[in-house]
Amino acid sequence: MASSNPYDHRSHDYRLLVKRWKAFCKDAKLKLQPFACSAEEHIYFIETARELAAQGEPWIYISAGVHGDESAPPWGLLEWAEAHVDLLRRHPFLIFPVLNPTGLILNTRADYAGMDLNRNFNHPSEPVVASWRKVIKGRKLAIGLCLHEDYDGQGCYLYELNGSKHILGERILADTSVLIPKDCRKRIDGRAAKAGLIRRKVIPEMTGQPEAIVLHLHGAPITLTFESPSEFCIVERIAVQKRFIESSLKHALGLT
Ligand SMILES: [Zn+2]
């Protein structure tokens, strides 16, 4: 378990995180599968309930650690998984615990070579992206959850890319605001925001596309990118990331 003392938390210790995932996967009879490398660090994914996916149930995609200076999401994802083994067995999940391990170790947004992964998901010339695309190829997705943080954040906020009229963001942010309030800035990262929600109805023009947009183009009907404020307490940020996953699955897919 994570220490309750935020000064003790080794949130940038990738090897410790992998050790925790390996122990969890062993207990849950799951496999932590390496699919790429960044410098000397393996990058992993986990898939659950393959047999249900083979019968047509779409995958629930969750990733963390795309930006290395955002250390709460990988731990929130781990703590969520540890608390929801039954749910993982009942539905097909595709989980990427840390997509940029060298950034996490170095506490940098980009990886060890200065590459911002979230501006390169449409660039298969990047080896990590090429390997990631091979893993997701051919998989029908129910939803994509992308876990992030913002050092300018004054609370939590959410990008919702959702073709449906049923907006999820307000309900999700109501759940997460019990732990960390919403970021109520009217403009966030150059975009109009309302009570922490940034809705995308149209794909923005970008040469370097982020993960959420590539997942949308891949066919995910809903992608949610959650941002917690990285200057807040690590323990609260981990808790709010875990709550975001729970709340998203509940409101989007009815899963508890
Ligand atoms: Zn980020």
Automatic annotation (TrEMBL):
Organism of derivation = Roseimicrobium gellanilyticum
Q: Which InterPro entries match?
A: AstE_AspA_cat, Peptidase_M14
One Pfam family recorded for the sequence:
AstE_AspA_cat
Q: Does the keyword Metal-binding apply?
A: yes
Q: Which key words tag this protein in UniProt?
A: Hydrolase, Metal-binding, Zinc
Stated name of the protein: Succinylglutamate desuccinylase/aspartoacylase family protein
Quote the SUPFAM superfamilies the UniProt record gives.
Answer: Zn-dependent exopeptidases
Q: Which GO terms describe its molecular function?
A: hydrolase activity, acting on ester bonds; metallocarboxypeptidase activity; zinc ion binding
Q: Name one GO biological process term.
A: proteolysis
Does this entry carry the keyword Zinc? yes
Q: Which family does it belong to?
A: Belongs to the peptidase M14 family.
Q: Which PROSITE patterns match?
A: PEPTIDASE_M14
Residues of the Peptidase M14 domain? 1-252
- Active-site residues, record numbering mapped to chain: 227
Identify the domain of life: Bacteria
User: Per its Swiss-Prot or TrEMBL entry, what cofactor is needed?
Assistant: Zn(2+)
